[in-house]
Amino acid sequence: EEAIFLRKKITLLRAFSLLIGSMVGSGIFISPKGVLKNSGSVGFSLVVWFSCGLLSMFGALCYAELGTRITKSGGHYIYILETLGPLPSFLFLWAEFFAIRPANSAVVSLAFGRYMLEPFFAPCAAPVPAVKLVSLLGYYTVLTLNSWSVTWSARLQTALSVVKLLALALIIVPGMMLLAQGHTEHFQDAFDRQSLVLDKLPLAFYAGMFAYSGWFQTSFVREELVKPERNIPLAVIVSVITVIVGYMLTNVSYYTVLGTQDVLASPAVAVSFVQRAFKSLISVVPVLVALSCFGTMNGGIFTFSRTLFVASREGQWPPLFSMIHIRRHTPLPAVMLMFPLVTAMVCIGDIYHLLNFFSFSRWLFIGLATLGLIVHRHRHPELHSPFKVPLFVPVSFTIICLFTVAMSFYSDPVNISIGCTMVLSGFPVYYLLIHRQMSDRCRNLFSISQDFLWTKLPSFFSTLSDYLTHKLQLLLEVVQQEIKTY
């Protein structure tokens, strides 16, 4: 009987938790290997980590201003649509759905599976099929939770943010203790220029920026934020500074305990660190890292479903995906859409190839979004924004993003070409289905498809949601009964 819409349930604490929970995930536990491999030395890798943090702060400030200028949810998509037009926004949506988001989710899911199984198979590596199976189970669990309740997804994100910071602390503290005792042998000749290969630096930045990625997550849920004009800039600044400090200390701890060859040879750097420095926690830290990845998966599903929801509302995606579950108030069809592609990429993909594959498209469109901020300022000088950054911040961030994207063609031409092809394949789709008027025959066929989507699939998703909800409630009752018995 009342209006159905996404409620304002994300407070400042939940916004901060969403950002921390999205940034501190698999990246800091798997990216040190990629950064070191492509930067060449310990010193240059630390420079890359700090530069990526500074660059993330610039991007986060640009997105904070965009979030106060443009009042819609949708993140990169809505910012590009409102500033640069429908074609680039559709190309982003196309690349995001078919390349960026499933590859990103697959990377985080694989890291979750690897760290979750590590204590059971140490010192041997966990079997690849087992890793992929656990990865998919973790992803499907988060998918079910986001279909069930916005409130519980937000509460889980808050709890896991605390777990993430605890995991970082368990790495930082023993590393700092050893450093204070004089263990600096791995920092000797830290800036070895002979091992520096300039054409590999974009890949080092991709790995580092992947670890920081998540600073833009509040822009996806702008309409669900309480007091967004105040809470977006505040949450962004505090969370990014927290993560920069945490990441720098974590990397120093890694290099205090592990040598260059140890980091490069390790499939799970955090586990190798604990095996060397803190053996009493050998079974605890991998589980904490896996929970960190779980939180990143939760944040990713939570935010990307809002992109599909907004794109459907704007007429660039089927109307089914702008629907909200009547009782749950969750964008259920948008949440459920991703799982076939993520399943396929988890089954066939490798972490580092997937990382380069989706990073090209992601940073191309983030650069375009901040370029859109410059364009929007020029077109609407009269528009008052409650939060405004100096012009050199979006200009420098845009130039660095686009330059890194261009340089990556020399670093990894195969994966980058695949990513570029995925983006360009959206052109004919846009002009055939979005821009150009369809013939009567095509329109009739499209209408039949739309009637099916509006009548059959919503009832299917509603039935599926009720079934999953019932099973989860039974499971919670069993757990509560076991706790009482214990």
UniProtKB/TrEMBL annotation:
InterPro entries: AA/rel_permease1, AminoAcid_Transporter
Annotated keywords: Membrane, Transmembrane, Transmembrane helix
Membrane topology, as annotated: Multi-pass membrane protein
Domain of life (superkingdom): Eukaryota
GO cellular component: membrane
Protein's cellular compartments: Membrane
GO molecular function, one term: L-amino acid transmembrane transporter activity
Protein name, per record: XCT protein
Any Pfam family the entry gives: AA_permease_2
Transmembrane regions: 12-30, 42-64, 76-100, 120-142, 162-183, 203-221, 233-257, 277-297, 332-354, 360-377, 389-410, 416-434
